[in-house]
Amino acid sequence: MNKDELKKILTDSDFQNLVKKVSSISLVFTAAILIIYYAFILLLAYGKEFLGQPLSEGSATTVGIPIGIGVIVAAWVLTGLYVYWANKNYDPMVKLLREKFRR
To answer: One Pfam family from the UniProt entry (predicted)?
Structure first.
C-alpha cells in the first residue's frame, strides 16, 4: 500500500465514521467498567464494616462476597455487550471498507 492509497482510506468518510463509532463505544464501556471497579475499591477502603456484615444472621458469607462477584459479572457482561456490538456493527462496516478499497 502506498501513501496515496493510505491517505485515501484515512480521509474516507466511511472510515472516519467507523473510527468515531469505535472510539465512542470504547469510551462508554471503559468508563462503565472503571466506575464499577473504582466504586468497589472505594467501598473496600471506606466501607469495611458494611462489606464485613453477614448476609443473614449466622451466615458466614459477608455482603462483600456478592458485591465482588457482581464486579466480575459486570466485566463479563460489558465484554459480552461489546462483542455483540462489534459483531453487529463493527464487522459489517469493516467488511464494507475492505470491499470498497480492495485493489
So the answer is: DUF485
Grid coordinates in use for 70? 457482581
Closest of 10, 11, 63 to residue 40, by C-alpha: 63
- In the block, cell 467507523 appears at 18
- At CB < 8 A and 24+ separation, what contacts does 70-74 make? 71/36, 71/37, 71/40, 74/32, 74/33, 74/36
Read off the C-alpha cell for 12: 474516507
Q: Note the pTM of the prediction, 2 decimals.
A: 0.81
Task: Write the pLDDT tens digit of every residue in 33-83.
Answer: 999 999 999 999 999 999 999 999 999 999 999 999 999 999 999 999 999
* Number of Cβ atoms within 10 Å of the Cβ of 40: 19
DSSP 29-62: HHHHHHHHHHHHHHHHHH-HHHHTSBSSTT-S-B
Place of cell 466485566: 75
